[in-house]
Specification:
Layout: E1 2-5, E2 19-22, E3 25-29, E4 43-48, E5 58-65, E6 72-78, E7 83-87, H1 94-98, E8 110-117, H2 126-148, E9 152-154, E10 157-159, H3 164-178
Antiparallel strand pairs: 1-4, 2-3, 3-8, 4-7, 5-6, 5-8, 9-10
Length: 188
């Protein structure tokens, strides 16, 4: 029905790698791959093996669960979009971790895949939207830090040179050209 791979971490994995919960849901225990380092797995590629594996009005929805957290939706594939690289963005919920009884086995991180109605899924890939927001915040922080090094204070206002945006953007472009991984370091 579908296959999965973790870019730069795995070969394509068959459906048999997942534990089947029922006719329409599967779970992958991340201990199978990385143990407690599940949060180092940032992306997952999921793909349909054929255009006839699911009805036209259905999708395979992808969810992630960190130890102690609830499942969170990350994206989906369907016949009109038969493959996708989905940012996993593992949930963090340390307060629930503290509520686990002593001596109990810790929960493991899991990826869930389920067949759902296309119409019931969010229109946007939430994982991608969160990644874009994080990137925008980090770029904004970079700009602010650059501007601070050139500003002066007049009363309750920061005063910066008029060409500060041009200077910052030129420096930003130069770094990106010299180091192909520079922009990747802006994401978590």
């Amino acid at each position: 029905m579908f296959g999965v791979l973790f870019p730069n971490r795995s070969f394509p994995l068959a459906l048999s790698t997942f534990a089947q919960v029922d006719d329409h849901r599967w779970l992958l225990d991340m201990n199978y791959f990385v143990g407690e380092a599940y949060d180092q797995v940032k992306d997952m590629c999921i793909f349909l093996l054929s255009d006839q594996v699911i009805p036209a009005d259905k999708a395979l929805a992808v969810y992630v669960q960190s130890p102690g957290s609830a499942f969170e939706y990350r994206g989906a594939v369907h016949n009109a979009c038969p493959s996708a690289v989905i940012p996993l963005l593992w949930p963090t919920n340390p307060s629930q971790m503290l509520l686990m009884p002593p001596g109990s086995a810790p929960l493991t991180a899991q990826i869930g895949v389920s067949v759902e109605d296309v119409s019931s899924l969010p229109l946007l890939n939430l994982g991608q939207q969160k990644r874009v927001e994080e990137l925008a915040m980090k770029v904004g922080e970079n700009l602010f830090n650059f501007m601070q090094s050139f500003c002066t204070v007049e009363g309750d206002k920061l005063v910066v040179p008029m060409d500060i945006l041009n200077r910052w953007f030129k420096k930003f472009q130069d770094k990106a050209k010299l180091d192909p991984e520079y922009l990747n370091r802006f994401t978590l």
